[in-house]
Amino acid sequence: MIRGRREGKNIVNWFPSLGVAVWAWRGAIALSRRPAIWLPLLGVTALQGALLLLLTSPHRGGLSVLALPLVRLLGGEAATHYPILYYALPTMFFRANLVLSALAGSIAGGAATLLFARAFGYDAGRSPYRRAWRSAPALIVTTALTLGLLLGLAALATLVPGEWTLRSGAVRWGVRGAMMVLLIVVQSLFVYATAWIVLKGHGIWPAVRDSVRVTARTLLPTLIAVGVSALLHFPFSFASGRVDLIAGKLKPEVIAGLLAVQIGVQLLVTFLLVGAATRLFLWRMEANR
Amino acid sequence: MRGVLLLVPLALLAASCGTDREAGRRHRAEREIWRADWEYQSLSLRPEAVSEERWTDLAGRYESIAERYAGTPDPGTPGTIRADVQTIAARALFAAARIHGALRDSNRVEILYEKMAGRFGHLPDVAAEVALVRGRIAEGRGDRLAAAELYESAADRVEPRAGVAGAAGVVLDLPLRAARMRAAEAGEGQREAAYRTARAYYRRHAAGPPGDAVQVDAQVRLAELAADLGEWDEATSALHRLEAQLRGLDEPPRHPCEARFAVYGVQNRAGLSLDLTRQTLIGLLEDYPDCPLAGQVLLALASNASRRGRVDEALQHLDRIAAEPRGDVEAGSQALLARARLLDRHGRWPEALESLRMLPIRFPLSTAALQAPLEIVLHHAREDDEEAARAALAQAERDYRDFLARYPPGPLALIAREHLAQTLALSGEHDEALDEMVRLGEELSGSSKGASLLLAAARMAYEDLADTARAAAILERVGDAYGQTSVGRWATGEATRMRGTMAP
């Protein structure tokens, strides 16, 4: 039984929707003192940290044996030079993180969803890790699909002539805003797929289809929950696009620091988003009964 | 068999580890020199506020980077990671030499360049840079034969490339420069021999891919070389051929009008009639109305008209330059100065004064604007108007001090300081003028300008202040700094003679 809001009407008004989103976040925040729920997400964070350390270690004796081939693979030969390594670091990290998110992040997200669901009173079975592992193929494919779609959408920005964005700040920010809205909408449509897979045992396509349905019925709270997460991320992605400026004004190593902070923020945001999405999902399921 | 198969990946892994160790070392070297460069840039923001000790520490840091990364038994062939690391080490030594140069420690600079030549002679780019810098030092000291040899050695090390930084970007000029130095030292009958190596060098590059910037510039140098040897027809026909070639190119690396302007230069040097050279310039402006050298062409036309006694025509040309709102600063400011001088020569002082007063307003950062206050002084001195000359001197001193207070150190500030010293000397403040000239001369130590400033200061001490000891001390400094040149040897001898004449 889910505690809290029991009315599951389609939410389309802003204030009630905001209330629902805040309610979902509060539920997630209330569970933030349970280390067990953090554990799968911390595992991904540890992997991201190790990846960042590896990418910034082509000069460190022991690590360079692994680091240099990885840097060459992700950033080309030029990235093995200092300070070009740091200019290329956000791109390299982004590329490697995509693979990490699809392979490890998806499974960790599944485990975290199960742990949240259990904490919210849902019978999620005894071993969430084993259950998430069993659903790994579906989780990986769904996450890869979402990431692929998001990347495809991001590529749309390149259709705007570079001259326009260079000349006009309004066009530049307009494009950024439009891309942000599109990304939030697409991510919102897929945000419940993991819950469908691990909690309801759906396959890939039913999970995607039903995620879109749940999003449609919980549109504004979902958009708010996903949108706020994306906005929390925005300063870092914005800064990552200005590495030349940061490295020029400060030291190149600051970029690695920025990415480290970004990893930390991502952990918090993912915790909140997974928790809120799970709560919203269970609330919607409860209402549908 | 299976054992052999196992050994293959192991050998590959071992080989890749070796390469990775080298790449890691290069990364460390790049990081260390980047951090040192960072500090250099930070200190260079306000160099006057940085202690000499701090600069010396930084130079030491660069030298230690060079020590750490230069010492490999196998230098590696160019293009390899090992060669990259050595290039970084060489760059560190360059930076250290630059700092010691700024600290006027010429002995240390010499030692560092010797070290670079010895350690990095196998890296063509580095060897060329070293030869180039040492050539400049030798040229600054007036040692022309040594400079010529070093310039030729730099040109032999790297192939010229257009629009790049470093030795490759400037090397094309060097053979002609070296030839001119050799010619200046050679007897009349040996001039052609002095240019032989340079001519072969430029012919080789002129035969390169047509339309390439280096191929075009090599043709210009060949024409200049022919003009140096008095082969006027050869020089002009080479330039006409080049102009035709440039006109036929879709994207010429130089504007065809530049070749035509060079024809004017050759005609001028050959002493052809003023009417003929005027026709060349008029034809240039008619054929190429968009010529980027229009300002210089108009200046040349003005000079031509002035030499023919056509003052109004000269003024018209000069006014056209000055009226161009987006014209280049150098041409615009020189036009205003030339206008003022022309008007002054023809007794139209009020108009000349107006042009001189306009100069610092329209072109505050130009050599002509810095010349303007002294021009006013010189006019009143010529007119024997003592009162006006005194007022102009006081104004000139204020103007130069204002300029130095307002603008940061740089080439224009050096000119302002030289003019200030001149102004002080003309005002009779010889002590202060002398101090400024000595300071400036020492800052420009190693260059011919530095030597001439110190010699002028010595003369002022001897003639205007009757201070023989001070004059001898300044000459001794010239002797120390320029000991390998005739000027340095003369200064040492003169200082000894002066000391000998002084009462015990």
UniProtKB/TrEMBL annotation, chain B:
Name of the protein in its database record: Tetratricopeptide repeat protein
InterPro entries: TPR-like_helical_dom_sf
Species of provenance: Eiseniibacteriota bacterium
